[in-house]
Every structure is written in C-alpha cells, then in structure tokens.
Amino acid sequence: MKGTRAAQRYAKAVFNLAKEKNAADAVKEDMDSILKTVEGSDDLANMIGSPVVKPSLKKKVLTAVFKDANPITLGAFNILLDNGRINILELVAKQYLLRYNSANQTQDAVVTTVVPLTDELEEKIQKKIIELTGNGATVKNVIDEDIIGGFVLRVGDIQYDASISNSLNNLKREFKNNTYVSKI
C-alpha cells in the first residue's frame, strides 16, 4: 500500500515522543478516534486526501474535529501537513496502534458472533486468545447472523473459525468429495 513505509516512520516518531512525555495512552485514544472517524466519514477522508483543499483548511477541519486531542497528536497533524503527507493520516494512526499494542504486548481481536458477547463469553474468548497467541487482546464484537451460531475469532493473521456455517460448509465439501457409490 502506498505510503506505508512513511506512515511507519511517522508513527514510530509519534510513539517515541508520546512514550517520552508519558502520553502514549492518551495518544492511543486519539489515534483510535482518528481511525474510527476517518473510516466512518467519506467526506473527511476525501478532504484529507484531496490535493485541491489547502493545507490551512485541512488543519482547521482537523483541529475542529479533534479539538480534545493531545498536543502530541496535534503536533503530528502539523508535521504531516508541513511535509505534505496528511493524506497518510489514517495509515499513521493504524501504525501507531500496532506499535502501541506491540509495546504493551496486547493486540486487537475481532470476534464475530450471532448475538452480543456476554461477560462470561468474553472471558472464554480471552482464554482462547491467550491459548492461540500467548497474549491477551482487546476484543471487538461484530454481529453477523450468517454464521448461524458459534464464533469466528480473528487475532492478527490468525483466524479460528468455530462457526456452525463453517462446519456445514466442511460437511458439504466432504459429501461432494465422497466417491463412494452404493452397489445396492
């Protein structure tokens, strides 16, 4: 993806500064907010990526939208704007979160279920995550009725599919591959 290496460098610089100033947690919250806001708003994403919109206007919009952001985050906006790289803001936020999670030995997990997770189920999922990866994770629950039942767990590049729809698909494949023909 274009801009990934640059985003890694900016994220590393922001993370190191945030750690130095004991503000890594606050900046993580900002980066979460940036990521959710940019992903959730096509208008904002288009404005940030547009070469037609002046950097001064982009700065006004970003500081208005993220008015409660940490000064380090606001400084990152300024550096990206000054260097003409504000278009990679979303990538910088993703890279920062990856660095933060790696440094804190945590990760993000996405659990797809048919119904919302209860505390008891979330505890069982946490145990499964620790079994699979050796570390805990922040669990995000996605509701999808197409899996019929069970759950699908994604942590990094690991996927554990314990869904009913997966079991049914596996059974369907076995029936298709079965070459047994009855002689009756």
Automatic annotation (TrEMBL):
Report if keyword Transport is assigned: yes
User: Where do the TM regions start and end?
Assistant: none
Give the matching InterPro entries. ATP_synth_OSCP/delta_N_sf (IPR026015), ATPase_OSCP/dsu (IPR000711)
Keywords, A to Z, come to:
ATP synthesis, Cell membrane, CF(1), Hydrogen ion transport, Ion transport, Membrane, Transport
Is Magnesium found in the keyword set? no
Q: Which Pfam families match?
A: OSCP
Topology within the bilayer: Peripheral membrane protein
**Localization terms from the record:** Cell membrane; Membrane
The record describes the protein's role as:
This protein is part of the stalk that links CF(0) to CF(1). It either transmits conformational changes from CF(0) to CF(1) or is implicated in proton conduction. F(1)F(0) ATP synthase produces ATP from ADP in the presence of a proton or sodium gradient. F-type ATPases consist of two structural domains, F(1) containing the extramembraneous catalytic core and F(0) containing the membrane proton channel, linked together by a central stalk and a peripheral stalk. During catalysis, ATP synthesis in the catalytic domain of F(1) is coupled via a rotary mechanism of the central stalk subunits to proton translocation.
Give the family, as the similarity comment puts it. Belongs to the ATPase delta chain family.
Q: What is the official name of this protein in its record?
A: ATP synthase subunit delta
The primary gene name is atpH
